[in-house]
Amino acid sequence: MSETATQRTEREDFQATSDPGLLESADRGEVHLLTYEQLYDLWERQQWATQDIDFTQDRIDWHERIPAEERFQRMYGLSSFFIGEQKVAEELGPMMRAAPTEEMRIFLCTQIADEARHVRFFNRFYDEVGVLEATNLQDRLAETSEHVNPEFDQLFDEMLKSRVDHLARKPEDLVALVEAVTLYHMVIEGMLALTGQHFILQYNEEVGTLPGFVSGFNNVARDEHRHVAFGARFLREMAQEDSKYGDAITRTLTEVAPIADGVLQPKWYVEGETEVMGATMEETRAFAMKALERRLKVIGLAPVADAAAG
C-alpha cells in the first residue's frame, strides 16, 4: 500500500467508520462495530457537498495531461462507479423497507441520500471536465454503459435486482434480505467499490492528476466504508441469531465470487501484459479478498474459499 493510501485509510474520519476492512485488529476478529444509532450520528458529522468541489484543474488534466489511450482505460473504472451508484440508489428502497428494526431503516435512509450524492458527484465531474458528449444525466449513463463488462450487468441487473424485486413483494423474507445485504454491502461496496476506489485514488495521487476528483472520491470512499460497517453489523447480528442466515451469507458469496472477479477485470485487460490503475489483477484481487476476509472474521464466518471447500 502506498504512503498516500495508508495515510488516507488511517485518517481519523475513515477509522471512525469502524469498517473491519480498514482495521488490522479485524485479522483477529476483534472490532468494536458501531451501533445503527452511532452510524447515523457519524453520517450527520461527515456531510459534504458536491457543489463545493473545484474541477478546474481536472479539466486541464483530462484534456492536456492524460493521453487518449489512458483516458479510454480510465473510463472502465469511472463508468463502473457512475452506473453502479445509480443502480444501487434505485435498489435500496425495498431493502430499507424490509429491514426489521426502525434503527436499521433510519440508517438505510441516509445511505439512499449518500448514493444519490455520489451520482451527482460523478455527473458534475463528467459535465465540468467535459469527459463525454452527452449533456444530461440520463444520456451520460447510457454513453458510459459501453465501457462496463457483461459480468457487471449480471451482478447488478440479475443477481442484485432479482433479490431486491423479491423483497419488494415479500419484505418479511429475512433470508432474502441477508442475501441482498451480502451482495450489496459485502461484495458490491466492500469488495468491488472500495477496491476500485483504493487503486484509482492511489494512482491519481501518485501521478498528480484530477485533484478535484480525488477530493470528492475520498468523500465517496469514506461514505462507502460507513455503509459497509452497517452491513457488517447487520450480518453479524443475523448470523448470531440463526445459522440459516450465516448459511445464506456463505451461499451468496460462493455464488457471486466468479462474477465479482469478472467485474474487477476490464474488457480491454490482457493477463500479464497490462495493469489497471498501476496495479496487476493479482494485486487487485488480493486487496479485495483481504478486506472481505477481515469482514467475515468479524461477522463470525470463514473466508469464502474455506466455506466453499467445506
Compute the number of helices. 13
Tell me the count of domains: 1
Beta-strand percentage range:
under 5%
| Structure summary, number of beta strands | 0
The CATH topology annotation reads as Ribonucleotide Reductase, subunit A
Could you tell me the mean pLDDT?
Answer: 90
Q: Can you tell me about this structure?
A:
The chain is mostly helical. The model is unreliable at 305-310 (pLDDT under 50). The protein has 13 helices and no strands. The protein starts with a helix and ends with a helix. The protein is 74% helix and 0% strand. The longest helix has 34 residues, at 174-207.
Short description:
By secondary structure, this protein is mainly α. It has 13 helices and no strands. The protein is globular and about 55 Å long.
Keyphrases for this structure?
310 residues; mainly alpha; Ribonucleotide Reductase, subunit A; globular; disordered C terminus
